Amino acid sequence: MADQSKTGAPNIFPCLRYENAPRAIEWLNKAFGFEKQFVVPGENNAVAHAQLRLGAGMIMMGSGGKPDPKNPWATEHFGTYVVVPDIDVHYTRAKAAGAKIERPLANTEYGSREYSVRDCDGHLWSFGTYDPYAES
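Predicted structure:
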């Protein structure tokens, strides 16, 4: 993974969950001009993951799901994903600062190494090595 701080590529991505993600994708295109980079279909007309671009910016989004104590992203409506160059160092730093770990550092089936935490006001963040721009 390239270090975005050196390439100038964005490394912070808003993440949204929608009750009807397929409809939201169409609406975001019609109303705001977001274009599909790619969409991963889920079960029952759901969207497991999608990336939508507007200019140089991008959002990640998908359908809301059933509560899963191992994955806060299943039901959270908004959060932020940040690509970092050394995820292991970053995780150690967050733990030492007292961040509430929601999903411990682990490798994913889609090739990332990441973790999820809540900040001091309870907002959901994920940090990892997955770079949505690599899919461009």
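Summary: The first helix runs from residue 4 to 7.
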